Structures are given as structure tokens and as C-alpha cells.
Amino acid sequence: MKKVFIDSAVSISAQNTFDTYGFLEEIKDISGKTVSANYPNYRDYIALAASRRMATAVKMGVTAASKALEKANLKQPDAIITGTGMGCIEDTEKFLNNIISNEEAFLTPTPFIQSTHNTVGAQIALGLNCKAYNNTYVHAALSFESALLDAQLLLQQDEGKHVLVGGVDELGKEIINYVRLMEDRDSSGIQVPFSEGASFFVVSSEAKEAAIQLVDMEVCSTASEEKLQENLKGFLLRNKIEPFQIDVLIAGRNGDAFDVYYDSASSFFENATELHYKHLSGEFYTASSFGLWAAYEILNRQEIPKPLIYKDESTSEINTILLYNQFKGRDHSFILLKR
Amino acid sequence: MTELKQELKEKIIEQLNLEEFTVADIADDDALFGDGLGLDSIDALELIVMLDKDYGIQLTDPKEGQEIFKSIAVLADYIADKRAK
């Protein structure tokens, strides 16, 4: 099987991660119930005529994808694979509200057309005039991981050489407030703001100089803490990696009661530096793509921004990173990267 | 009639998300489709729904739309003549 490498990574997030050469140098303190992404100047990437019908997720996705291709010096990918938990929720809300307020009459086409989850992948393809394999995965907190897994399989089986893959979610205006209310009913809920973002990557089966390898990944919908530990042991064993060889563990902690899963995973890696990121990116179904972006930058730059550090164990070189994410005790994922 | 033309320009900008335009940018005789505002077939559907919802005018013949949506001036004349709301 072919190996899989990450050629480029681009993130639009609540932090200044897009229009900068720095790496989380200036941190925006995010607080409150919801936090919007730090939007780039879309006009640099999307023609005005095309952008007027695009909702936030589409604009973020198309822009991040465009820059990821640019950074990888790639004009046409062999596949476009997108993961999104909530899809174009803004237009979905608009369309459903119109149905109610207009008593099922006077429905306009734009919010309906743009409300489907695959709008982001479709708009990227339209912009590139790319007729290659195009798929969108909608699987809650495993949406991005499912897309990445598909990309990995395509490359490993030599069905493509360069794949554009990304995770994207937008806040929307209404449903998110109800979700927030549910989270805030007691202290065991999610302790970071809900947010949004788009992180896109070009993954390839051709190794470039100083390439970052996506060694392996594993997903699992439900697991007890014991089962999680078993899965983790099996994952490391399969990849012939001892726990001490993991330099950095990146955990998707969001402060809720289910962070015990991260404590459980963390206990395996006493000598590893542990990082967290959702206090910077906010929580959303595809927030783990921000985690992968951070891991890529850390391996590339050999530098860990201080705000990411949860538990510091100084390491001279960072060669191996394990990402672990879960949401509400479900949708567990491991991603193993190597320099 | 001037008020109606102003109202139509505001509605078109808002409903079709013409972010780059202001009311002052749209002349009464500017073409709405093609070289003018550059509207397309999806916008035509949006305009048909707007006519029905806001003015009680139902367009049944698509060919009629080609003529009515020529410019703000033509559209305003048509609405003033046919409006039920």
C-alpha cells in the first residue's frame, strides 16, 4: 500500500490562522456562548458574482480549499472530499423559517439549493471545473475523520495521487443557541464557546522533502473508557509504536464531563507533551480538523505555541504526534502523524 | 412611481444579495440581466416569487418574464398596472 503525506494545510478559525505566516502568535481570547470565525477577505479568492449566494461555510470552505491547493502547487486534485457536521445550516434555517412564515408558499430557490451538506464540495469543484471524485461525509464529530479516511484509502489504493480534503462547519443563527442552552443547564457541559471554521489539506501519495506522513487513523463510534484504552493499545501495536515514542498528544478537550476519556488516553503517554486546542478554536463537529492543522504546523515548524500546551514535557525534536478526539463520549478518533 | 422604483431596487439588492450595488448604482433603465446587473435564471425565479408574495402578481407565462424583467422602469410599470397588494 502507498504511503500518505500531507502536502499543505490551511485553516480559517476563530484565531488569526489564515492571513499570517506566524503560527498562533497573537491569540484572540474567545469567550461567551458562540464565537464566529476570523473571516478572511473573500474577494481575494471568490468572484463577487459567485460569492453573493454563498453562505458562511461555503465561503470559508472554498477559500481554505483554494489556498491549500495554492500552497501545494496543485491546480486540479484527483478527488475533493469534504466533511461537515451541520452542513449549510444558515440556509437550512432560512429555508425552514420561510416555510413556516409563508405557510409553505413563496419558497425561493437559493436557500434550498444552498442548504444541502454537499454545497461546499460542489462549489469547490465548480470553481475549479473539477469533475473528479467528489464526496461529502456527514457523520457528527467523525465527519472530517470520515473524509480523511476516504482520502487515505484512495491514495493507498492508488486511485489518485493528490486529494483535497477538509472539514467545515458554520455556526448558523438559531439551532446553535438551543444546543448552547442544553450545554449550559449544568456544569458538566461543554466549557468552550461553540464556533465554526474550515481546515483544508492536500494529501498525497508522493513524498516531498520534509514531508509529514499520515501514518494511520482509526475511528470508533462508541466506546467505554476501558474499550478506548484497548483500542488505543491496539492502534499503537498495529503501527509498531511504543507509548514513549509519541512526542506530542493532541487532545480535543472541551472541558465537559467526557474529558475523562482524554485523561484515560493521556495516562498512556507520561513522557509526551499534551496539547489542547478547543479553547482557541471553539467546539464544532469538525473542530478536529483545526487540531490536525495545528499538528501539521508543529511538525513542520518544530515549534509549539505556548497557548496550546496542556501538559509540558520538553522534547528536543517533535517527530511523532497522536491526535485523539471524541464528542460526548462518542465518535472517537485517533490520527497518527510522523515527520 | 419613483417610490416603487426605489422600493424595487432595495428589494432586489437585499433579496439577491447584490453586495456590490447600492440603490444609487442602479439606473431605472439599466438591464437587469446580461450586461446590466448580471442576474441569472435563479434570480429570475427569485423575482417571480417576489412578485407573487409582495404584489400579488402571478406570472404564468415564462416568456412574459423576459419582457417584464428588462429593467426597473419596465418592472415598476408592470407592477403599478397589475398589482393586487
TrEMBL record, chain A:
Q: Which ranges carry the Beta-ketoacyl synthase-like N-terminal domain?
A: 49-169
Gene Ontology CC annotations of this record = cytosol
**Pfam families hit by this protein:** Ketoacyl-synt_2 (PF13723)
* Coiled-coil segments on the chain, per record: none
UniProt entry keywords in alphabetical sequence: Transferase
Q: Enumerate the InterPro entries for this protein.
A: Beta-ketoacyl_synthase (IPR000794), Ketoacyl_synth_N (IPR014030), Thiolase-like (IPR016039)
Query: Does the UniProt entry include the keyword Transferase?
Result: yes
Give the molecular function GO annotations. Answer: 3-oxoacyl-[acyl-carrier-protein] synthase activity
Q: Which GO terms describe its biological process?
A: fatty acid biosynthetic process
Tell me what this protein is called.
Beta-ketoacyl synthase-like protein
Which organism's genome codes for this protein? Gelidibacter algens
Q: Lineage of this protein's species?
A: Bacteria, Pseudomonadati, Bacteroidota, Flavobacteriia, Flavobacteriales
UniProtKB/TrEMBL annotation, chain B:
Coiled coil ranges (UniProt) are none
Q: Which UniProt keywords apply?
A: Phosphopantetheine, Phosphoprotein
Cross-referenced SUPFAM superfamilies, in alphabetical order?
Answer: ACP-like (SSF47336)
* Pfam family name, one: PP-binding
**Which Gene3D superfamilies does this one have?**
ACP-like
The Carrier domain extends over 1-83
The protein's name is Acyl carrier protein
UniProt source species: Gelidibacter algens
